Inverse folding.
C-alpha cells in the first residue's frame, strides 16, 4: 500500500516536472523566432502513401484494451536502489499500475535483438510499442510488416532514427517522441565532454588511478576553453542550450551551422554567429559538437574527407548519433592526430561490440549512451510518454512538436 502511494506520488511529481518542462520548452515559447521556425518545421510534413486503417485517430478513444510493449534497458540491482530510476525494465517508466488499472496489457523487456527475442514474440499482435534511443529496439521495415496491429510507436526520449520512418508512415503507424525532454541533460553533458577533452582530464585521472604522478605528460596537452572557437553543427534545441552554456566561458567565437537560422534574438542570447559554409566552420573551429538528427542525408556525413577539413588537432563531440560519423575515419583521425580527441555517448550499434575500435582508440572519452537518461530526464520523458498515451486513449492529438510521423507524413527535421 505504502509502495503504491509512493509510486503515485512519484508519478505526480514527474507529471508536474513534465508540465514545467513543457512550459519552458523552446518549441512552445510562443513569440520567439525559433519557436516560429519549429512550428514551420513540424507543420511542413512530407506526404507519403500510407495505410489509413492504422492511422491512430481512427482506433483510439474507444476505451478498448491495448497490448502495449515497452523495450527498456535492465535496471537490475540499481532499479530498487532508486525509485526515481524509471527508465529501466523493472520500473517500466512508472506506467504499469496506471496502464493495468485501465485494463491494458503492458509487457516490458530488454530482449530486443534476433529472431527469438522477447520483442519478436509480441510483434504480430502489439498495438503500441514504446522504445528508447538508449537501448534501441530497431523497428525495421521487416518488423513493421509483421506488426499488423501496431498503431503507435512512442520514443521515450528524443531521436527516432531506430525506427524506419518511411516504412512506419506507409503502414499508417504514428511515431512520436518526447521532444525537448532531455535537452538540458544532453547540453550539460556536452559541455562536460568539451572540458574533459580540452583540459586533458582523463589521461591525468588515469595517472593518479595507476599510482603515477607526471604533470608534464598531462599539462603538455591541457588548454583553457577561453579564447577558443567552438561550433555546433545543428542549432536546434540541444545545440542552442549548449551555446547558452558556453557563453560565460569567454570563447573567442561561438559558431553554428544549421539549415535554419536561429534568428537575431537567439543569436544575441547565445552570442553565436551562423556560418553557412560547413567546411569554413570546420577549418576555424577548435571544438565542434554535433547536434543534428540522423537521417539519410546526415548518415556518415563526417567521413574521411570532411574530417580532413577540420583544423588539425580539433576536438569532436558527438552526443547526437554514432552513425553521423564514419566509425573507421574517426578512429584513424584520432590515431593520426587530425582529431585531438573524440567524445560522445552514441554508437552506430547499441550496445557496441566488445572490440569496437572506439573503446581503444587514442584520445577518446567515450561512455555508454547516458547523457539523455539522467534521473531528471527519465522523470520528464516518462511523464511525456504517459501524457501521450493518455491523449491516445482519449483520441486527443499529441503536442505538435512531438509528432514525428503521422498520417503517412514525416516531420521536417527527419527529412
Ligand atoms: P532539434 O530537432 O531541436 O534540432 C535539430 C537541428 O538540426 C534543427 O535545428 C535542424 O534544422 C537541424 N538539421 C536537421 N537536419 C539537418 C541537415 N540535414 N542539415 C543541417 N541542419 C539540419 O533536435 P534536438 O532536440 O536538438 O536533438 C538533436 C539530436 O540529438 C536528436 O535528433 C538526437 O539524435 C540527439 N539526442 C541525443 C541524446 C542522447 O542522449 N545522446 C538525447 C537527445 C537527443
Amino acid at each position: 500500500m505504502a509502495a503504491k502511494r509512493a509510486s503515485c506520488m512519484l508519478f505526480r511529481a514527474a507529471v508536474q516536472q513534465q508540465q514545467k518542462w513543457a512550459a519552458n520548452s523552446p518549441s512552445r515559447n510562443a513569440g520567439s523566432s525559433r519557436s516560429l521556425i519549429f512550428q514551420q518545421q513540424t507543420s511542413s510534413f512530407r506526404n507519403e502513401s500510407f495505410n489509413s486503417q492504422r492511422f491512430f485517430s481512427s482506433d483510439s478513444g474507444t476505451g478498448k484494451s491495448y497490448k502495449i510493449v515497452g523495450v527498456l534497458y535492465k535496471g537490475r540491482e540499481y532499479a530498487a536502489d532508486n525509485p526515481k530510476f524509471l527508465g529501466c525494465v523493472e520500473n517500466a517508466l512508472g506506467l504499469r499500475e496506471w496502464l493495468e488499472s485501465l485494463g491494458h496489457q503492458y509487457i516490458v523487456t530488454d530482449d530486443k535483438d534476433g529472431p527469438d527475442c522477447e520483442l519478436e514474440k509480441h510483434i504480430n499482435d502489439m498495438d503500441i510499442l514504446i522504445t528508447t534511443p538508449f537501448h534501441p529496439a530497431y523497428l525495421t521495415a521487416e518488423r513493421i510488416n509483421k506488426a499488423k496491429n501496431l498503431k503507435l510507436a512512442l520514443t521515450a526520449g528524443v531521436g527516432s532514427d531506430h525506427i524506419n520512418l518511411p516504412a512506419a508512415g506507409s503502414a499508417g503507424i504514428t511515431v512520436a517522441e518526447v521532444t525537448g525532454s532531455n535537452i538540458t541533460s544532453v547540453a550539460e553533458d556536452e559541455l562536460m565532454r568539451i572540458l574533459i577533452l580540452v583540459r586533458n582530464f582523463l589521461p591525468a585521472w588515469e595517472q593518479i588511478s595507476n599510482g603515477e604522478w607526471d604533470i608534464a605528460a598531462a599539462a603538455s596537452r591541457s588548454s583553457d576553453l577561453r579564447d577558443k572557437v567552438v561550433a555546433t553543427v545543428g542549432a536546434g534545441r540541444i545545440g542552442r542550450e549548449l551555446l547558452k552554456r558556453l557563453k560565460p566561458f569567454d570563447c573567442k567565437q561561438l559558431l553554428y551551422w544549421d539549415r535554419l537560422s536561429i534568428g537575431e534574438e537567439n543569436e544575441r542570447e547565445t552570442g553565436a554567429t551562423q556560418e553557412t559554409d560547413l567546411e569554413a566552420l570546420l577549418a576555424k573551429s577548435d571544438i565542434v559538437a554535433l547536434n543534428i538528427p540522423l537521417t539519410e542525408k546526415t548518415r556518415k556525413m563526417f567521413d574521411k574527407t570532411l574530417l580532413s577539413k577540420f583544423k588539425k588537432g580539433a576536438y569532436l563531440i558527438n552526443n547526437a548519433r554514432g552513425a553521423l560519423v564514419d566509425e573507421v575515419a574517426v578512429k584513424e583521425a584520432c590515431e593520426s592526430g587530425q582529431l585531438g580527441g573524440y567524445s560522445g555517448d552514441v554508437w552506430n550499434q547499441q550496445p557496441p561490440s566488445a572490440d569496437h575500435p572506439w573503446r581503444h582508440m587514442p584520445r577518446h572519452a567515450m561512455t555508454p549512451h547516458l547523457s539523455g537518461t539522467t534521473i531528471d530526464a527519465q522523470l520528464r520523458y516518462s511523464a511525456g510518454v504517459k501524457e501521450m498515451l493518455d491523449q491516445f486513449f482519449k483520441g486527443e492529438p499529441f503536442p505538435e512538436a512531438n509528432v514525428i510521423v503521422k498520417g503517412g507524413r514525416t516531420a521536417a527535421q527527419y527529412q
